[in-house]
Amino acid sequence: MSAKNEKLTGKVAVVTGASKGIGAGIAKDLAKAGASVVVNYASSREGADKVVEEILAAGGAAKAVQADVSKAADIERLFAEAVAAFGQVDILVNNAGIYEWAALEEITEESFHRQFGLNVLGLLLTTREGVKHFPESGGSVINISSIAGSTALPGCSVYGATKASVDLITKVLAKELGPRGIRVNEIAPGMVETEGAAEFVKSDFGAQVVAQTPLGRIGTPADIAAAAVFLASEDASWMSGEAIYLSGGYR
Ligand code: NAP
C-alpha cells in the first residue's frame, strides 16, 4: 500500500474482482486514501475476507460482497448490499476480467462468450446499475483495460478485442455520463504480477516482455492502484474519457 493521503475521505467505492491481484491492490489503496470499500469477489471468499481484514486492521472500512458481475441479478444485489452498508456509491472500479489467450485455431465459442460476457457485457451492466446509486454531484468510474486492447499481440484476438471494446466504451460513457458529473476513465496496464497472470509471467513470453520493457520489469498491483486513487480523486476532476497506460514503457 502507498502512503496514507486521505484524498477520498467520505467516499464509497465498489471494486469488482477485488479478492486478489490488481483489484485487491486497488481496494487497499482506495481504503488507505479514506474511501469505504466494497470488495467484490466471484468465488474466492477467503481472498476477499483477507483484503477486508487488512483494510480494517489499517483503520479503514470495507465489506466483502460475493457477486458474479457478468449477471444482472448478482450486480443488482452487489449494489443493494453496498448501499445498505455505506449509504451510496461514489467510485466504481470495473476490474473483474478474465484473459484466455488462444491462437485462431484454438478459439472456442465458449471462451469467446465467457470473455465478452464478463469483460464487456459485465462491465456495461455493472456501470448501468452502479451509476444509479451515485449522488447527484456525480462520481468516478474507472475501467481496467489492457495494452492488449491497442497492441497486436499474437494469441490475443479475443481477449484483445474485449479490451478494445472497453477502450471505446470508456470514451462513449464519458460522453453519456459527463452531464451528470460522472467521469469515466480507464487504466490500461501491461503485464502485472498477479495470480491470474502467473503463467504468463513465468513463460518465455513474460521474459520477452521484460526484455522489451524500457523500465526493465513487469508491474505490480500497487503500480496500478496509485493511478486508480488519482482517477477517483478530485485531482482528476477535469479528466474524463481518457486512458492511463501503465506498462513501464512497453507498447
Ligand atoms: P486475477 O488475478 O485473475 O483476479 C481476477 C479477479 O476477478 C478475482 O478477484 C476474481 O474473483 C474476479 N472475478 C473473476 N470473474 C469474476 C466474475 N464473474 N465476477 C466477479 N469477479 C470475478 O486477475 P488480474 O490479473 O488481477 O486482472 C484484473 C484485471 O486487470 C482484468 O480485467 C484483466 O484483464 C486486467 N489486466 C491484467 C493484466 C495482468 O497482467 N495481470 C494486464 C492488463 C490488464 P475470484 O477470485 O472470486 O474468482
From TrEMBL:
InterPro entries: KR_dom, NAD(P)-bd_dom_sf, Sc_DH/Rdtase_CS, SDR_fam. The keyword Oxidoreductase applies. Keywords: Oxidoreductase. Its EC number is 1.1.1.100. The keyword Oxidoreductase applies. GO terms for molecular function: 3-oxoacyl-[acyl-carrier-protein] reductase (NADPH) activity. Residues 11-190 form the Ketoreductase domain. It is an enzyme of class 1 (oxidoreductase). It holds the Pfam family adh_short_C2. Belongs to the short-chain dehydrogenases/reductases (SDR) family. This is 3-oxoacyl-[acyl-carrier protein] reductase. It comes from Haloferula luteola. The lineage of its organism: Bacteria, Pseudomonadati, Verrucomicrobiota, Verrucomicrobiia, Verrucomicrobiales.
